[in-house]
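Budget justification aside, the reviewers requested a transparent look at the raw inputs and outputs of the sequence design task funded under Objective 1. We therefore reproduce one unedited record. The lines immediately below are the structure tokens for a 213-residue chain.
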């Protein structure tokens, strides 16, 4: 493996893949990463009600990592240079404003995409990190297929609430898009741990077809 650093962006506490992946006019920067990386378009979330439970499923089995709210993303270059963390988790929590107003949610999606773009540009230009750093994006879960009276919630049973896209970019990942294999939120931690040859496959599995052989 060539990866020494991983930036795992939990790009929304409930955001639909139709907004951050399928529609490049809303999320052009995330699309740039996806086009240079590998995407599973059918990443399943068993539960979509509790933010805490979903985040725990993503992070509990992850090896030792630093956590930063994505609102502090401007500090990432300095943090990476100073502390050189193996795994940095950036958690975006702005999307839940969708419970109040769909319009505000869309604004949050675009702002997150801007932050993702700035981070991506920095990693690609930095001589210390551009060849040994992976970036992975995967939200806690999605949100409902339909806007309800100007609000966008996350409810059991909606396709876009349960199915998200996970995006993997870095020196050890293949390029491409897998639209058939259904992976699971519980697969993310063991898959990311595998970058560092750490076995945490207690609950999920290392996803197939992602790693260069
Ligand atoms: Zn919520």
């Amino acid at each position: 493996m060539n990866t020494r650093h991983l930036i795992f962006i939990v790009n929304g506490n409930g955001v639909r893949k139709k907004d951050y992946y399928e529609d490049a006019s809303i999320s052009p920067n995330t699309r740039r990463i996806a086009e240079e990386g590998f995407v599973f378009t059918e990443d399943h979330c068993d539960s979509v009600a509790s933010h805490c439970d979903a985040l725990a499923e993503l992070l509990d089995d992850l090896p030792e990592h630093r956590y930063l709210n994505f609102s502090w993303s401007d500090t990432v270059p300095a943090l990476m240079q100073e502390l050189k963390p193996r795994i940095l988790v950036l958690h975006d929590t702005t999307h839940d404003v969708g419970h109040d107003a769909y319009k505000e949610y869309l604004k949050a999606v675009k702002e997150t995409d801007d932050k993702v773009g700035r981070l991506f540009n920095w990693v690609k230009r930095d001589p210390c990190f551009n060849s040994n750093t992976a970036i992975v994006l995967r939200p806690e879960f999605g949100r409902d297929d339909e806007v309800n009276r100007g609000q966008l919630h996350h409810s059991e049973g909606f396709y876009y609430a349960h199915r998200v896209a996970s995006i993997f970019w870095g020196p050890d990942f293949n390029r491409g898009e897998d639209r058939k294999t259904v992976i699971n939120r519980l697969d993310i931690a063991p898959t990311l741990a595998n970058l560092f040859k750490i076995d945490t496959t207690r609950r999920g599995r290392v996803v197939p077809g992602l790693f260069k052989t």
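The chain has a mean pLDDT of 96. The domain at 5-194 is CATH 3.40.720.10 (Alkaline Phosphatase, subunit A). Computational costs for records of this kind are itemized in the attached budget.
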